[in-house]
What we know:
Low-confidence stretches: none
Shape: elongated
Distance between the termini: 12 Å
Strand content: over 45%
Helix content: under 10%
Number of strands: 12
Radius of gyration: 19 Å
Amino acid sequence: xxxxxxFIALSDDNNGIYYxxxxxxxANAVGxxxxxxSYIAGMSYAxxxxxxxxxxxxxxxxxxxxxxxxxxxxxxxKPTGTGxxxxxxxxxxxxxxxQRIFPSVSVGxxxxxxxxxxxxxxxxxxxxxxxxxxxxxxxxxxxxxGRNIVGSxxxxxxxxxxxxxxxxxxxxxxxx
Length: 176
């Protein structure tokens, strides 16, 4: 958020799966990343992603998992606790495809499977993202992304999120 969407125009690695799927087409080699963060109160987040370039196309896979830890269940009838512990979690599995349609223009798309569980209640859904990237020259790039252009979770539409990014690269600076 602090970059104002600038990474939409700069994404050229595994992170493009999230910011702009067209950006993964800029990778010249197989990429792999993983991360794990432990938060307060037992919460944790994990991510694993990989991209595989093949000719003018690039394929990607990403899995995100968020655990809220172990929480004592409370209800309106028992606001101090029921004695039962629950472990809420959510996940998102994403498949990506990007292709250079011209030497300086790329397009990409994501298909996502979403899910979450809280106590005995669970939900699932799907979503799709699109993106475009124009590398004007070695210094300037413009990117467009649309997240959740289609999708549903628990029978309700996912919130749309559109973005535009502009980047300027000059050694040793990158301006977004």
